[in-house]
Each structure stands twice: as C-alpha cells, then as structure tokens.
Amino acid sequence: MKSIAPYWLNNILGKLLRISAILSIVLCCYSMAIAFEAPKAILMMELTKKPVAFDHVPHAELECVQCHHMVEGRQSFQMCSACHQAKDKKAENSYYKVIHNKKTANPEMSTCITCHKEIAGKDKKKRKALTGCKKSKCHE
C-alpha cells in the first residue's frame, strides 16, 4: 500500500517512531534498575550459630529472584529471617535450611550453599572458603 504523505514526512515519522521506541526501552530499563537497587549496607544474618555478614555487592551480578522468592504471587525483598524464623534445623521454615540446604524445591532458586558450591566448582580452596563451616568467608 502506497503512502499518501510526502516522502520526507514518512522519513521523519519513521525516525521519530524509532527514536521513541529506543527511548521507551532505555527508560524502562533505567526505572527497573532504580527500583531494584540492592542495599549497600552489610546485613547481619544472626539466626545461625555463627552469624554471617551478608554483603549484596559481591552478589550484584545475580538475579534477585535467585534468593528472594515469590511470596503469594509477588516478589519479596525481605530478609530471609522475616519468614524463615525457626531455629530448629528440621523445621519447615528453618532459617538453617534456607542457607545450608544442598537442594531446593524450586530449581530456579538457590540456597547460599548451592550457589557457592557451583561457583567453587572443584577448586578445593574456593570450596573451603565458600562452603566451609570453619574459617570460611561466610562465618568469619
């Protein structure tokens, strides 16, 4: 179908449409980045025998949903201890399980240990530093 508008007008409209689409994408990405900015402060995870000082900065390349799972159909950015308060290691909402379980019910999620094991791979030094109970980077 041939346009009835002059060529120069079609050219300008086409460019404006492309520019507005690019700007929309950039603004959308920018607003999402601002909305989900991780805390800069170190969070103390104190419901374990040996407290953990959790820093979001080294975890910044991860997707938030790998740790912060959906609650009642919505993304939750609360600390683990907001819901997982049981100190009994075997309890359903055990704080210990959230951190130390070697498997998760949801394959899209990770516990600290599952992720750290994957990162360490077969490197024994990294494995001890990231998954060890004594003298690890977590329980200093």
UniProtKB/TrEMBL annotation:
User: Which metal ions or organic cofactors does this protein require, according to UniProt?
Assistant: heme c
- Class III cytochrome C domain mapped to chain residues: 35-139
Enumerate the InterPro entries for this protein. Answer: Cyt_c_III, Cyt_c_III_dom, Multihaem_cyt_sf
Q: Which residues does the record give as heme c 2 binding sites?
A: 69, 80
Q: Which residues does heme c 1 bind?
A: 56, 59, 64, 67-68, 83-84, 112, 115-116, 138-139
Q: Where does heme c 4 bind?
A: 133
Gene Ontology terms, MF aspect: electron transfer activity; heme binding; metal ion binding
Give the transmembrane region(s): 16-36
Q: Give a yes or no for keyword Acetylation in this entry.
A: no
- Recite the UniProt cofactor note for this protein: Binds 4 heme c groups covalently per monomer.
* Name the UniProt record assigns to this protein: Class III cytochrome C family protein
Species of origin reads Halodesulfovibrio marinisediminis DSM 17456
